[in-house]
Recover the amino acids of this structure.
């Protein structure tokens, strides 16, 4: 079985928002777990990542990732690095053909970027912390430093507003960074709680930053257990090990 992925019409570059299907892992990591920080067998993760790379036409050794920390830090990639040795950052960009940029998620927003006229691509891991502190805008700025001028973007599968209940503390933290985000918090199912629209928030920030075209797939990772890993779903069901899906783009 091939690694399963979905694509966005907005992005002309080869890319995939990969699901959890089409890999070799089993148990709670079944089957396309791409996270080396999980308790999955390393050889399984490496095979899964190789399948992901080949699915978008990249060499496995050219699929690059990061040590994601919910920051606004961006890496400009010019040469491959060893798997698991990526810098502590949450986005990466390149203008080098053949390099594939990947981000790991399990509810956060994977965002892929492209300007094929300039020959520049990017990938960002956008949880609420990273989005609020500017990781999307920082990714675009890094792409512009490489010559990008007409950037398109797509927000892949992430936790949907109906599935994403948050408390006052999280809402206050987002609004402290971005008061305009108030419109992305609906009244929660429980008193004193809110439902946060992460994908909508990312789309709005991308448009405001100057993306010429933005798309969100609006696929809910928490709800669709057959296709996606979900940290929130795992937490609500009592914890335990979990896998992560990967989204990637290549020139």
């Amino acid at each position: 079985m091939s690694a399963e992925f979905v694509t966005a019409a907005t992005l002309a570059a080869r890319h995939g928002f990969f699901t959890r299907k089409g890999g070799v892992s089993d148990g709670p990591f079944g089957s396309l777990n791409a996270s080396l920080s999980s308790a999955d067998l390393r050889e399984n993760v490496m095979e899964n990542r190789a399948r992901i790379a080949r699915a978008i036409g990249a060499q496995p050794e050219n699929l690059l990732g990061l040590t994601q920390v919910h920051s606004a830090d961006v890496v400009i990639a010019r040469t491959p690095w060893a798997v698991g040795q990526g810098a502590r950052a949450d986005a990466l960009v390149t203008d080098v053909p053949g390099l594939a940029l990947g981000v790991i998620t399990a509810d956060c927003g994977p965002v892929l970027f492209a300007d094929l006229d300039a020959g520049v691509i990017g990938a960002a891991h956008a949880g609420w912390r990273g989005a609020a502190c500017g990781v999307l805008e920082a990714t675009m700025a890094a792409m512009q430093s490489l010559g990008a001028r007409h950037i398109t973007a797509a927000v892949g599968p992430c936790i949907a507003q109906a599935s994403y209940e948050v408390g006052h503390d999280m809402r206050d933290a987002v609004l402290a960074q971005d008061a305009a985000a108030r419109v992305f918090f609906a009244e929660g199912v429980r008193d004193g709680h809110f439902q946060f629209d992460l994908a909508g928030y990312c789309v709005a920030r991308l448009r405001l930053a100057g993306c010429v075209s933005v798309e969100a797939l609006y696929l809910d990772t928490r709800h669709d257990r057959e296709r996606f890993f979900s940290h929130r779903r795992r937490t609500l069901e009592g914890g335990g090990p979990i896998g992560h899906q990967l989204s990637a783009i290549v020139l």
Summary: The helical segments are 42-55, 128-133, 135-145, 168-177, 198-209, 231-236.
